[in-house]
Design a protein that fits this description.
This protein is α+β, with helices and mostly antiparallel strands. It has nine helices and 20 strands. The strands form four sheets. Strands 6-7-8-3-9-10 form a six-stranded mixed sheet, sandwiched between helices. The chain has a five-stranded antiparallel sheet with strand order 13-12-11-14-20. Helix 5 links the parallel strand 7 and strand 8. It is elongated and about 80 Å long. Bound molecules: adenosine-5'-triphosphate. Adenosine-5'-triphosphate binds next to strand 2 and helix 1. Adenosine-5'-triphosphate (ATP) binds next to strand 2 and helix 1.
Length: 371
């Protein structure tokens, strides 16, 4: 299997005269052998273009692309030893499942027996042996996607590329296939690069995640680092569901402690964070706090006037074991994820405790992370 490296890669598409569309801007990325890398970001951020550049379906405007230490910029897609799985499956309708999976190998003129062995082995891995004689039109979405995966597996490529492969499946099947692709990665010990706009897919599948926006890489990290230490406000808001809450305010220094003050509340900055925030005294900044780091004071063991605020409940969204509370301080809307919610009513004021050791702070102007 193989390492994939992108060095200073740019892709500009012809757009308005004299003003090309920069879809990918100076991407530097190294996907290690056997690694599962996920490219994630909102629509139009350049993730599919990046994948297509690796596949050779687009030509880089600038920069170098390496697969297994060989520069492949001028190597056609069929000679790059990659297999790509698309959202729309791209199966041949007139061929049955066996023929669909065997097609690429036939083109490569592999011996009949070897083709048969590879197809049967892949069908076994994917649990589709029973449907080998069926045509795609009679298959469910999940079965079609398995066939598309099978067609990639039989080729034994150096690198698997996935472009939103689960987007056409319903929610339940998506969760199931997500786990199956992860198992497949473990079993095949292959290098895989996976594109999705779904941050949950990214978090659950990736060894490392590449977060993109506007053609630029925002951060590359493993899922937990991305969640706990986002490099900027965009990453902080994109990773996690519901999103991190953001509140604009200023820092106020009182005696030995530093406080964050929004219009309608003040909380004490955790002692471990105070020094790093020193240069931001009296400057505008944004505090970020995740819904699960906010607690109903009634159930909080660490409540003090320094970490408690009063907010108004706007919506209670029960989710079974827990609920999401949509709240407002009067200035900032925010969400808390709480375990007990039967007593709560809309328009009621509630005291909430912030776990300030988990708070994030961003420069309001640059949106870069301070803490
Ligand atoms: P999506 O999830 O919607 O596919 P994406 O993150 O994969 O989004 P890309 O498809 O890589 O984004 O597109 C990045 C930008 O490049 C977009 O603004 C898109 O309109 C533009 N783009 C992509 N392909 C072309 C093309 N062939 N010609 C012109 N512009 C293009």
């Amino acid at each position: 299997m193989a390492r994939v490296v992108l060095k200073n890669v740019w892709k500009r598409f012809p757009d308005k005269p004299g003003k090309p569309k920069e879809a990918v801007k100076n991407i530097n990325l190294s996907c290690e052998d056997k690694e599962f890398i996920v490219l994630v970001g909102p629509s139009g951020c350049g993730k599919s273009t990046t994948l297509r550049l690796i596949a050779g379906l687009e030509e880089a405007t600038e920069g170098e692309i390496f697969i297994e230490d060989k520069m492949v910029n001028d190597v056609p897609p069929k000679d790059r030893d990659i297999a790509m799985v698309f959202q729309n499956y791209a199966l041949y309708p007139h061929m049955n499942v066996y023929e669909n999976m065997a097609f690429g190998l036939k083109m490569k003129k592999l011996p009949r027996e070897e083709i048969k062995q590879r197809v049967l082995e892949a069908a076994d891995i994917l649990g589709i042996t029973e449907i080998l004689d069926k045509k795609p039109r009679v298959l469910s979405g999940g079965q079609r996607q398995r066939v598309a995966l099978g067609r990639a597996i039989v080729r034994k490529p150096k690198v698997f590329l996935f472009d939103e492969p689960l987007s056409n499946l319903d929610a339940k099947l998506r969760v199931q296939m997500r786990a199956e692709i992860s198992k497949l990665h473990t079993r095949l010990q292959a290098t895989m690069i996976y594109v999705t706009h779904d941050q949950i897919e990214a978090m659950t599948m990736g060894d490392r995640i590449v977060v993109m926006k506007d053609g630029l890489i925002q951060q590359i990290a493993d899922p937990i680092t991305l969640y706990d230490q986002p490099s900027n406000k965009f990453v902080a808001s994109f990773i996690g569901s519901p999103s991190m809450n953001f509140m604009d305010g200023t820092l106020v220094k009182k005696k030995d402690a530093v406080y964050f003050s929004e219009e309608n509340f003040t909380v004490k900055v955790h002692d471990d964070h105070a020094a790093a925030l020193e240069e931001y005294a009296s400057r505008d900044l944004t505090m970020g706090i995740r819904p699960e780091d906010i607690f109903d004071k009634v159930y909080a063991s660490n409540a003090s006037p320094d970490n408690t605020i009063t907010a108004t409940v706007e919506v209670v969204e029960p989710m079974g074991a827990e609920a999401l509370l949509y709240l407002t301080t009067g200035k900032s809307p925010f969400i808390a994820r709480v375990a007990s919610y039967e007593q709560l009513e809309v328009n009621q004021d509630i005291d909430l405790v912030f776990d300030m050791s988990k708070a994030h702070f961003f420069d309001k102007a640059t949106e870069q992370t301070i803490i």
